[in-house]
Specification:
With about 600 residues, this protein is α/β, with parallel strands linked by helices. It folds into two domains: about 10-330, Rossmann fold (3-Layer(aba) Sandwich), CATH 3.40.50.10440; about 355-585, DhaL domain (Serine Threonine Protein Phosphatase 5, Tetratricopeptide repeat). Helices cover about 50% and strands about 15% of the residues. The chain has helices spanning about 10-20, 80-90, 105-120, 150-165, 170-180, 230-245, 265-280, 310-320, 345, 355-390, 395-415, 420-435, 435-455, 460-480, 490-505, 510-525, 540-545, 550-570, 585, and strands at about 25-30, 35, 45-55, 70-75, 100-105, 125-130, 185-190, 210, 225, 250-260, 285, 290, 300-310, 320-325, 330. Strands 7, 8, 9, 10, 11, 12 and 13 form a seven-stranded mixed beta sheet that branches. α3 (about 105-120) links the parallel β5 (about 100-105) and β6 (about 125-130). About 55% of the residues are buried. Bound molecules: adenosine-5'-diphosphate (ADP) and magnesium ion.
Length: about 600
Amino acid sequence: MTQIFDNPANFADEALDGFVAANRGYVARVDGGVVRSTEVPAGQVALVVGGGSGHYPAFAGLVGPGLAAGSACGNMFASPSAGQVYRVAKAANAGGGVLLSYGNYAGDVLHFGQAELRLKAEGIDTRTVLVTDDIASAPIDQIGKRRGIAGDLTVFKIAGAAAEAGLDLDAVEQLARRANYRTRSLGVAFDGCTLPGAGKPLFHVPAGQMSLGLGIHGEPGISEHPLPTASELAELLVSRLLEDKPDDAGHRVVAIVNGLGTVKYDELFLLFGKVEKLLTAAGLTVVEPECGELVTSLDMSGLSLTLLWLDEELERYWAAPADTPAFRKGNLAPRPRRELAGPEDAVAGDEELTTAAAAAMGRLAAAVLAQVRDVVVEHETELGRLDAVAGDGDHGIGMRRGVDAAAAAALDAAAAGASVQRVLMAAGEAWSERAGGTSGALWGSAVLAAGMMLGNKESYRDGDAASAVTAFVNAITTLGKAEPGDKTMVDALLPFRDAFLASSSGGATAAAALAAGAAAARKAAEDTASLRPLKGRARPLAEKSLGHPDPGAVSFGLIAARVSDYFNSELSDYSLLAGSAAGKGAQA
Ligand code: ADP
Ligand code: MG
């Protein structure tokens, strides 16, 4: 149980504030997480880590010289939003580029991925290395699908030490990738954990049982076993990890016995002693091991064993000093404190210069988003029903939450005189932050990407609309990675794009191209009824979904049709061509 809080809804935020208050020599609070409070040499690569809160010392506890430069901290067990990741990365960047590294979870991948696109669009060299150490979560031939658990530490440590040594972004990325490739973990759980304010645990392990490979948020494991003795447990963990060892494994390994929350240190040590004997008996040399709480899961009862197979270079960086609130190794000269700009200043460029004509364009963008909101509200119930066929039934409410926030943010920005770029970026950020769910993150990124592409201009040409459509679609396919035929919104999106671009390159106006695209999207959305879902939450119930269209494809078709109608009727006296900033919508 978690007892200490005022309002459980503020738990993660208040815990982070207190963590910063207790560690001011290491970290400073920025909007979305923390960054180092000490000086960082100019040009040093910034390792930015993060994920849901509730896993201390992951992730904020690992910020300091020799390790992370910043951590984006989401709500309890929930990914930080793309905006949070972006702001932390901006504040952490010292001019050497950014390496984003985090455990492979769908929400984190979407939000960190969106932040990466945004950082890159601003010219900040940004890379991503996902941690995929948990051997229970997918077989070895699907290693890229594995989730990240305590192996976060080995990957972050190697990357952070390489950055500290002054290596460039290419080299730091490559080392982090190699560390991840050579790291394996396996966990066991004896009981679940309880979110602050919740009346019961998130999941349970039956009394007297142990669950092998159960994920740190209760994701299904491999098997259940009667409680073993310590020797049996050590044998089980060591043998499973050795069976899964990387191809080029050597004989020197880092071993980490990690407590997940309520297992006492004495018990962890007892197990570690047995693990070490077994590894030595298997011909391995254990190098600078760790035993303690390094990646936890609130008050979960359980532990994990991690092995990192070293090579000479990895060993050097593993052994290098680090100095963070929760992880200290060797000696590092004390660092002077640095003056950090406030959270707002950290995201420079908040000032925007717009002309009256550019602001009129911004109001037009907000008017279009109001249309999008209206059509989602009209179809909210129907979209929820469609998602309930084989998904979790939240597509209507999720789209509603996202688009309400997006339209409101757009209106605020437009009222303040923002450009199309600012209006759409504010809307996209609000959308992914508030919607929750896969579709919200994808829609938010797409709107944001379209906004960045359209920029701050006084008028737009048809070619700009084509570029914006392409950016919109690319954001969704890059982040969601769905293929045509997977039965997702992509199956309506690609026909929309193709029809739009064909029509536009044939000389049609943007409004006419929109009409062609929308017609193609509506039809393609209906046609998804004959497909089986291969991505997203509906996948396990694929058969039930046959005969029903994909909810995300349907909502996209409806939105495309409404935007097209708006451009073709309400804005009929409005031309996207240069010099005509004064359509009806522009005054809305
Ligand atoms: P969640 O699936 O998280 O509950 P929603 O119910 O709001 O989110 O959205 C479901 C829709 O999201 C699906 O119908 C599908 O169109 C879309 N979707 C899911 N995963 C992907 C993906 N990887 N790429 C593109 N679209 C996706
Ligand atoms: Mg859903």
